[in-house]
Amino acid sequence: MTVPTPVPDPWVGILLGQRLGPYEVLRHISEGGFGHVFEARHATTGALVAVKVLKVSPSAEATIEFENEAVLLRQLSGCDGVINFVDFGVGKVDIHIVGGVMPVDVRYLVLSRASGSLDEISRDPVSRDDLSLADKLRLWRDVIKGLRQMHAGGVVHRDLKCSNCLLFVRGNLSAVRLGDLGRSKDLALPITKTLEHYVLGRGDVRFAAPEYLYLLGEPTAKEAIAADYYGLGSILVELITGQSMTSLAFSDIYSVIDQAKIDYFAGRSRDLSVLVGRYTSVTADIVALLPPSVRFDTSVILGQLCHPLPGRRSQPSPFRRDRLDRDGLHWILKRVDIMIKQLDIEARAERRITNTERKSA
């Protein structure tokens, strides 16, 4: 069967070379559900930025989410673990039609220009193999830090995955910042979307927490934070295996959703505790890929963050020395630091052995 070639969005061609406020649109970077991301240059300073543009004729919901992202980014502007907000505006673009030119309003969001995203590493087996586990943990540590900052600022992300973790490379230094806050939510405001919205087009089900797949739980702040914890653990799984935790736990996600819809309308509720054995087995398979010295800590961390029961994900640390931590993610940061140190020590020891063998050869 021949796979059809995707038809390019004509909106991209129209925008290239245009000016949106002081920003000249240079090239297309990526496409999302509601918009496109372009590289652009500030006409006066020459600074390169990323410009996110809402697609033409968007739905009212898409417009609200687009503007909501700008509001939340301003709210989180002091967080160095979240993408930098630069500007927001509405520009005019001329579209040539039969008989004349029609000016169209274009909403745009200006952000700092990233070097890439973590899914460029997670999706490519060569890139994943080339990056040491210690370096993967360093990148993941930035994701933890960014999520802690968002939660401390009263915002949940609700769409955590490697493609929304933006990579900034400066010389030999790399850092990750959380981006794509279109589905994020200010916890000070009531949550209006129910869980079933997720499987009806509001997210990629390959990254959904199990309670979303089974249409369970309540649209509360606590549930939203628990889903963020699950997404955080799944990002580490992506960096290790190239797949999300949900993809590894469910061989046919869509059959799960179909059955969940039947159960939902029949008034039946799935007991998520029956998934514990499945998740424990998947976690064991993931941990088996890692060096022995970090298997236990990784197993504990993934076992908690990606537990199928949402209420178990924000439990206090199982380690006695971390029991006084009030922040549900602080103990994980400390565990990650310990694992990175251990892996660095092992790497230095291995290099010394290799150098000694070379000299004696």
Structure, described:
The chain is 42% helix and 19% strand. With 361 residues, it is of the alpha+beta class. Helix 10 packs antiparallel against helix 11 and helix 11 runs antiparallel to helix 12. The longest helix is centred in the last third of the chain and has 31 residues, at 330-360.
The biggest beta sheet reads: 6 strands, antiparallel
Instruction: Measure the end-to-end span.
Output: 56 Å
Shape: globular
The helical percent reads 40-55%
Q: Summarize this, please?
A:
With 361 residues, this protein is α+β, with helices and mostly antiparallel strands. It is built from twelve helices and eleven strands.
Fold topology:
Elements: H1 10-15, E1 19-20, E2 23-31, E3 35-42, E4 48-54, H2 60-75, E5 85-97, E6 100-112, E7 116-117, H3 119-122, H4 125-130, H5 133-152, E8 155-156, E9 165-170, E10 173-178, E11 185-186, H6 210-213, H7 221-241, H8 245-249, H9 253-266, H10 276-287, H11 292-305, H12 330-360
Antiparallel strand pairs: 1-2, 2-3, 3-4, 4-6, 5-6, 7-9, 8-11, 9-10
